[in-house]
Design brief:
It contains six helices and six strands. By secondary structure, it is α/β, with parallel strands linked by helices. One of its GO terms (biological process) is proteolysis.
């Protein structure tokens, strides 16, 4: 890894920590309290062609069903590496961005989230070079990073990804008043999937 890429990665990771699903609601409440107008876009990154990378489009589709108006990236219109820059340019300049993406991590971190008030680096865990994006970010650790990251994403449990996507979307919808305030139950009971 080059020096400038390592520095960018180190800066992006500073101040981040693993978070349990129960912390998602508080994170989204903070986002809501700072952005109550109509100037917030959820950028849900990924593709439906890989079980691990489908997290973003799954979240985006669920957010749309909950009534969020500004969502980029869904199962029918994913935001992936092929159209990322075009989709990013479509976001109004005055909008704050909540970037949501899947990522790979260590075995103990799988099922956790990296929540931040700063950009995430899309495709970083598979060696991609997309620009940092987001004023807020949610990276869902869906599987262990191995020597072949694309294979790790392909071999990721779809059930794990669907549960995490449901947990993210439900926490956002609850925090933004789209549904009654619900406690998330990831890890204790299966999520209700629609």
């Amino acid at each position: 890894m080059g020096t400038s890429k390592r520095r960018l990665l180190d800066e992006a990771l500073a101040g981040r920590k693993w978070s349990a699903g129960s912390e998602l609601n508080e994170f989204f409440k903070e986002v809501w309290s700072q952005n109550q107008g109509d100037n917030l876009t959820f950028l849900c990154i990924g593709t439906d062609r890989s079980s691990g990378d489908a997290l973003g489009p799954l979240v985006g589709s669920k957010l749309i069903k909950y009534g969020f108006r500004h969502v980029i990236g869904s199962l029918d219109h994913p935001c992936d590496s092929l159209n990322f820059k075009d989709r990013l340019e479509a976001i109004p300049q005055n909008h704050q961005i909540v970037a949501i993406d899947a990522c790979l991590g260590t075995a103990p971190s799988v099922g956790h989230y990296i929540l931040a008030r700063q950009p995430l680096l899309p495709a970083q865990s598979v060696g991609g070079m997309l620009p940092p994006v987001g004023d807020y970010s949610v990276a869902a650790i869906v599987n262990v990073k191995g020597p072949k990251p694309y294979t790790s994403l392909q071999m990721t449990s779809l059930y794990q990804v669907m549960c995490m996507a449901e947990e993210i979307a439900t926490a956002a919808a609850s925090a933004f008043g789209k549904i009654p305030n619900l406690a998330t139950k990831h890890g204790s009971e299966p999520a209700v999937l629609d």
